[in-house]
Design brief:
It is built from twelve helices and 13 strands. By secondary structure, it is α/β, with parallel strands linked by helices. The protein has a domain at 219-288 and 295-320. Strands 1, 2, 3, 4, 5, 6, 7, 10, 12 and 13 form a ten-stranded mixed beta sheet that branches. Strands 9-8-11 form a three-stranded antiparallel beta sheet. Helix 2 links the parallel strand 2 and strand 3 (56-59).
Amino acid sequence: MTAPVSVVIPVYNGAEFLRRLLRSIASQTVEPLEVIAVDNGSTDDAPEIAVKMGARLIAMGRNAGFAAAVNRGIKAAKGEGIALINSDVELDPRWLELLWGRARDQSFATGKILQKGSPKLLDGSFDLISRGACSWRAGAGRPDGALADARAIRFCSATAAVYHADIFQKAGGFDESFDSYLEDVDFGLRCAAAGFAGWYVPEAVCRHHGSATFGRWSPRVVRLIARNQLFLVARHYPGTLIRRWWWPIAVGQLLWGALAIRHGCGLAYFGGKLEGLRRFGQLRGATPGLEEVIAESEREIYRIQSEDGFDAYWKVYFRLT
């Protein structure tokens, strides 16, 4: 049985990870319409593996970033649905069947993401964002079994999700100024403003190696996240909202900086913030109708954290805000 879904995989090295992902795609209970690997200038044999295992290869010729690679794949896709999957993910056999079953009638769907190295722990699920413009992948670090119920969601991580292709026609693609990291949160905010919603399907399970390309706390990752947090504010928060929420914004982003410093990435954090401030004016915009969406998302972070025990970051954030 074939699902009318195009699988789009952004690739940058990690040949063995890609091989495992493609094997898991081949083992799905429903076959995708096509598999597209968008190569961001890999220097290993990942492109050759993609072709050998039946994927259609699009070569970017350089590392153009996650957003640009995904947009190129979406543009080339033929399916009614589009599955975006990081190359360091492995899918359970019913992943595509379950998520397309929801995304077909919704705008998008995502499932439970487990840590590949610690399979009893969640890598995350759907995304949430605070007033401070810092996001959280709900359930990250919690035991498998948390977030066990299906639910409607506003945001999903592009790590592993299925979208109805129409959403990209109506909400646009991923903002390439973000390069990598938080581009899916930016996309989710635009979708929420347009009235789109999705579904979390915990039975749809995948396993994520997590930051396999650069490392979770590499200077490059920290710089991009620090910068893109400010891009989110610039793109979506009107001036009135920045003035009203200046304290949560300051607290959220300074606390994240403290984490970066703790992991030896203080210079990268400050470099990212300086770049974000330098480009803030040219990116200014305002997305109407998001104030309550963001406030409700923050309340959901608080609810989940209070049920399962507060992470240190969120404990301090909520205490101060």
